[in-house]
Amino acid sequence: MYRCKNLLLKLTDGxxxxxxxxxxxxxxxxxxxxxxxxxxxxEEVVVVGSQIRGAKISEALAVSVFTAEDIExxxxxxxxxxxxxxxxxxxxxxxxxxxxxxxVNSARGDIGAFNLRNIGTGNTLVLLNGRRLVNAAxxxxxxVGGSFVPVNSVNxxxxxxxxxxRVEILRDGASAxxxxxxxxxxxxxxxxxxxxxFKIALRRSEYDNLPRADNxxxxxxxxxxxxxxxxxxxxxxxxxxxxxxxxxxxxxxxADFRSRIPEGxxxxxxxxxxxxxxxSIYGQFDIIPGVPASxxxxxxxxxxxxxxxxxxxxxxxxxxxxxxSSCGYGINEQVCGEQDGGSLTRYNLNANRDxxxxxxxxxxxxxxxxxxxxxxxxxxxxxxxxSQTNLNRHPSAPFSSVRLRIAADAYYNPFRxxxxxxxxxxxxxxxxxxxxxxxxxxxVLIDNYxxxxxxxxxxxxxxTYRFLQGLRGDLGDWDFETAVLWSQANKDDVTHxxxxxxxxxxxxxxxxxxxxxxxxxxxxxxxxxxxxVSVYRNSKAELALWDVKFSNNELxxxxxxxxxxxxxxxxxxxxxxxxxxxxxxxxIRYTDGDGDTYPFVSDVVNSSPTPDNKGNRTVLSxxxxxxxxxxxxxxVQLALRYxxxxxxxxxxxxxxxxxxxxxxxxxxxxxxxxxYRAPNLVTINENMIARSNNxxxxxxxxxxxxxxxxxxxxxDCRDTAQRxxxxxxxxxxxxxxxxxxxxxxxxxxGLTMTADVWSIDKENTIGLFGEENHTTLxxxxxxxxxxxxxxxxALFNPAVQRMPVEEDARAAFMAAGLCPVGLLxxxxxxxxxxxxxxxxxxxxxxxxxxxxxxxxxxxxxxxxRLTKFEQAASGEAAELAAAQNAxxxxxxxxxxxxxxxxxxxxxxxxxxxxxxxxxxxxxxAALGWNYLGSFYQSSLTLANGTRWVVPAFETYxxxxxxxFRLGTDSKLRTRLGVKNMTDERAPLADRFFGFFADAxxxxxxxxxxxxxxxx
Length: 1015
Known about the structure:
Largest sheet: 22 strands, antiparallel, barrel
Strand content: 35-45%
Number of helices: 13
Structural class: mainly beta
Helix content: 10-25%
Shape: globular
């Protein structure tokens, strides 16, 4: 629907003060810059923001432009690196170092995402030469609300960085111009054209702290034919990136990061930083169904404390290496045992896993432009992208919700007669204590265990193809342009050394040594081989598009000049196909010992079941735009777009932009627009999926904190639990009102400053309430109920499913004043349109370019500041927030995804960059500065509300150039670059490698040599 609001109402008092402060600062800046050189417009006439070619209003749009020279000075080889350095772009949620927990459900391989304003993946429209790019083939999930929702994005690494002429970033909602997804803005990459000649470039990068080395080869060729009527151009890029492994640097080598916490910190010793796993090859086991007090396994082991038996009252015990100080009794020559209650042997998850995969990438882009004798132009674009990655991941561990069992008659079950693990290798007193064994033995449940014999190895291949054929010309007073586009992205992901639940269960329960797996051996690769499988995920995304546009730049005259108008139509088809391995999609089913099967259990150890999914939609768009030069110094843009979706309701949105120049040196600009993001195809079409995640059970934590002298009910109340969700056709599009107000000031000749205040009010954000929020809701209801009337159905949250109450936990619950419940098993959640998201901030830019006797100097400074990011709460979410504010719920509970999100989990409040360059003759140099503001990690909040703050991170880059003449028309440029010259390392965070990889890189300093020849 079309909703007009007063632009000024969209700006806060603080925003108005920022604008005034900027004007005040300009006066001081001007006084210092009176001797600058010739005036040069910094706001280029760009494609993005208006589809009317040459529209004067383009100068009044909030657009950031990064030229080919800027991009070269960044010293990057990949699209994800490029957009990480652009201040308006937020976190890259597709980082390989952060997608570990998602496993095969992550978008793995060579992939980067777009995330303007940090509002979330999928809210940025991405164009190439003014038209849409296909989404990446694979999708993953991202936290929206309180849990993880499927999101997709264009893959930034499909863009040929070497062939870019400029990147245009429209920092404003633009659905009225370009359609769905342009909520936070638009990124348009414009590639070079009219090439004539040949360039070749070689680059080699080496790292101070790592054995990694990167190499790239880049080719650029173009030529005119047919007397200049035809131009053919080709870009090619080959990139070979070295692997980065956790063992390459001591900072990452041990997943227990507590030693890196500063002395005197209130977080000293905090076990949240202990990211080694309780699941190891030396596991924890439970005898089924338990051991009576009369059993010999409950009797004291001879020669030991009279309280010490082989197992505790629940039949639980641990195993250790034979030389471990926790050993209580021998089992065989490799391992010993002890009843439950002692320490676990924790596994270092960073013993061998990669932060970045081994990568080879090929980018090819070709174009053919031809002008016919009648003046019409044909333009053809063909591109291809191929990537291959190889990645090491940590070994698999069974989910706590899908535990394997050792049959009573299994060959290696130590609790049966004749087992080689029959305790006889221990001391004589130990052997005597367990002789004779029960005739039928005991079945055993495998509790905490990890198959550390082999790592998971991931091979990922990605391809993207794009073909566009267009025609433009004029029909009388009207210009027209039309094009057809087809593009397809594919991802083939194969993980080796996965373990089949069915096959490993058969090996564990085998009664023959030749086919049996021994979990009491500290590793049994021979026994494991029969259970190893490779698991695939093959994904495809496709985009087909046809559009036609008619424009007239002289429709009628106004006092400020001729009015321009554009009308057009676009039809597009979008589809995705996500094909999962038969072991994951339910074709091959596994039933666990509790009777659970697909769709709650898959046949792959440590992987959630996932059905095959696919979906498609068609969209018909009608749009119009008019540029009105009302006065010589006043320009107005009006735009309207209607889109009709085949699977969700249609949408009509509009935009108003104004540019006013009260003086030659000052341009005031503002806009109000509406934008929308349709539910993505996954959230609509997805079959029910169950995801196993590590979930903090806040009801459990509350009991542990208030249990008095009773035993803990769980050591950290953070275990694997399932969450179910399903696509819904009842979802509606997310809609937003966007507003901006700013200025462009030509301070002196060659120096320009811009400042813009912006806001986004987004409704119907699609998300989930979340597993941890559901446990918090259940805790609140339990607190209100107390520990009486425990049959009251209102006490429990119907979305939460729990296991039966453990008898030894009842005392802790009663002491905490709550009715006893079991450990968390499953949360049934629903995709829903949540409440408003409110964002606001401001951008500042300073652009200078002048030339003197000392050479040519240029400066470019960009700042993006986030002042507001709120997820409004209502209903049950508001109930939780109110209870916490009232003191009913502890402040240490993190209400996920709600409230103030500024500075939370990577949503830094400020991001800025600066480039200063100099060139004189054959010499050149540049200094770059990148700054990322601080944020806090919400999961580490202490009971008193103290937050773990991840401090600001800044790096400096330096380059030196020299040009050699090779002849009349040829030259050779050598560039030596130093990235992160002060060798800054990413600040500590509770993440897989000890830093927040969605926001930071932790590779330290590296040096590159770039040689480029123009022939």
